[in-house]
Amino acid sequence: MDETRGRRPLRIAFWAALAAFGLAGLVPGGETAPAKATAPYHAARIPIDGMIDDTLVTSVTRRAKEAVETGHDLLVFHITSYGGMLTAGLDLSTEIERLGRRGVRTVAFVDSKAISAAALAAMSCQEIVMTPEASIGDCAPIAISPIGGVTPLPDTEREKAESALRQRMETLAEEHGISPALGAAMVTLRIAVVRAKNRDTGEIRFVEEDKLFELGPEWEKAGVVDSPDTLLTVGSKQALEYGIARHVVDRLEDLYDLYPIQGTIDLLPVTWSETAVQALNNMYVRALLVLVGLLGFYVEMHTPGFGVPGTIGLVAFGILFACSLLADYPNWLAPLLFVVGLVLLLIEVFITPGFGVLGVSGILLMVVGILLALPNLSRWPRTEFEWSRLYTSLALTAGILAVFGVMVWLLARFFPHLPILRHLVLAPSTGSDGSSHAAAAPLGAAARVGDIGKAFTDLHPAGKARFGNRLVDVVTEGDFLARGADVRVIMIQGNRVIVRSADRGEADAPTA
What we know:
Elements: H1 2-6, H2 8-20, E1 43-49, H3 54-69, E2 74-81, H4 86-101, E3 105-115, H5 117-124, E4 127-130, E5 135-137, E6 143-144, E7 150-151, H6 155-175, H7 180-187, E8 193-198, E9 204-208, E10 219-226, E11 233-235, H8 236-242, E12 247-248, H9 255-258, E13 266-267, H10 272-280, H11 283-301, H12 308-326, H13 333-350, H14 357-373, H15 384-413, E14 452-455, E15 462-467, E16 470-476, E17 486-493, E18 496-501
Parallel strand pairs: 1-2, 1-13, 2-3, 3-4, 3-5, 4-12, 16-18
Antiparallel strand pairs: 5-11, 6-7, 8-9, 8-10, 14-15, 14-17, 15-16, 17-18
């Protein structure tokens, strides 16, 4: 490493001398040197690692902008990825291509793999450099089933998804001196690419097999590059032969031998905050936030006052809906629906009698908000990709509700008896004979026959009443009682705590 750095000033002087004599386009071995070598480059390395999604695109865009603003004119995109979202891949491709149009030199350093959307990112760079074990290609769009498996797309939907991507890959390939047929073969099946050889000159080209005749009678088929039933994926040796890769090197430090780089290549890594945002924007992490939020709200509704559980619930849902804003892809529809639904539900519980249209509408709006928030959809799905993400969200939501139901049962049955949690969760009271006089309400919210309390909400006829520091779900015998009215427990039937106005006395009260 020290020896390599020691030779760097000599290499820079060598490139400067070649530029001065107009010979910078020639290097030993017949390879073509980088086109711009009039002055040493100030280089920066931007890693593209892991899944390519909206959060990563925002991070790469920010780092590239920072690099350009600090005077870097050679950006090395260090790619090690199996790809990711189609829309994010197209956005990343556009951002990288714009850098080239603004005079910045862009190089893709493919280390190990550049598959799917990562291949698109690599092809967007002006040059591709690969390590010997690296591969690139397989850029066809796919759909993911709710259980996480890859599902085939029908022909019509596949063609709709592929058309823009295929056109993009063909354009990028042609701009960077690569055969457009190779770019198309990475995206679409049914394309056969062959090696065409000119009998007279020995020139080699790579074309679609059914277009070979268009080259003229002097061209003949000299081998098959990609068959119609496979997607083109090539290793470094093939990529170099086909003109996809400009160089193959053993390690990143070898870039100093390929480009006149001043000093060292500056690293612009992903920040810790971007890593956190990327993790929070994972659909399954969002699902966990929903579960925590629901449990927080549920516990808060069954404990006096407003405390830690409610705060945790609010924070969990706040993070859920803030994820898209933090990733610079705001989604206002999901939080709007959720908040409106929550307001309607609160109105139904604390203001209007009974439980009817407002309560049901509120719950439905909250569920729809969650469904759109999990995959971060800012609109009702229109494309096949968006529908597939919504299906995944439906499956996750169903799983969340199932786990929520199990957790509620555990809270009601076991948590009141745990030493740490029994101060938060109220356990049922028992009589002198050992029988329970408490309503088997969730979290052990308890009351005994004869207890007198106050209606916490209007009882029409169901609602909540407070007995000391206990908030209990109750129901009257049919009477409507206003909030604040004194009530007496007259009977407990299973989970039902039946009350009547305390003014009526308890002489004729039935027994449980």
